[in-house]
From TrEMBL:
Xref: InterPro entries: Biotin_BS (IPR001882), Biotin_Carboxyl_Carrier/Decarb (IPR050709), Biotin_lipoyl (IPR000089), Single_hybrid_motif (IPR011053)
Record lineage: Bacteria, Pseudomonadati, Bacteroidota, Flavobacteriia, Flavobacteriales
Record-linked PANTHER family: OXALOACETATE DECARBOXYLASE ALPHA CHAIN (PTHR45266)
Official protein name in the record: Biotin/lipoyl-binding protein
Lipoyl-binding domain: residues covered: 86-161
A Pfam family hit: Biotin_lipoyl
Organism of origin: Postechiella marina
Sorted UniProt keywords: Biotin
Signal sequence extent: none
Keyword RNA-binding: no
Length: 164
């Protein structure tokens, strides 16, 4: 099964590439950041000018034109859909259920200070216990669920105090 990558160029053009497409490229690494690519009998010179691995962004010079490229895989898309994106400027004010399930335990109290990645609650779904962690450093404002409650996908579970 081929992996699919979502590619955005210059915040303007979106492409779906799969791993089979990428493996068929005729590329030759010339130096640490330079590549020679042949596609459809056309010669392409590509140079990686900059990259941010965590943000999955790249600045690439292709035949003397600079492009800003963002590449995401299926997991990145799922994480974004669930509202658990990584990054320095997270604007998270609530945690919603990523799937339907049963609340096994609530590990925090209202007004409690939590750190990023602290366990918040345990959600059982499809006979598996999933530990839901805090996406940010913050203070728990409200808890909308109790131990033993059944929840639907996207139901709000926890709200953070967004005043800082």
């Amino acid at each position: 099964m081929s992996k699919v990558f979502k590619v955005n160029v210059n915040n303007q053009y979106d492409f779906d590439l799969n791993s089979d497409d990428i493996s068929k490229l005729d590329t030759l690494k010339i130096s640490e950041n330079e590549y020679h690519i042949i596609q459809d009998h056309h010669s392409i010179k590509a140079e990686i000018l900059g990259s941010n691995f965590l943000e999955k962004t790249y600045k690439v010079n292709i035949n003397n034109t600079v492009f800003n490229i963002n590449i995401n895989n299926e997991l990145d898309s799922l994480i974004k859909t669930m509202g658990f994106e990584t990054g320095k400027l997270k604007q998270v004010n609530a945690i919603k259920a990523p799937m339907p399930g049963l609340i096994i335990d609530v590990l925090v109290k209202e007004n409690q200070e939590v750190k990023e990645n602290d366990p918040i609650l345990i959600l059982e779904a499809m006979k598996m216990e999933n530990i839901i962690t805090s996406p940010i450093n913050g203070i728990i404002k409200t808890i909308s669920v109790k131990k033993g409650a059944a929840v639907d996908k996207n139901e709000q579970l926890i709200e953070f105090d967004t005043k800082s």
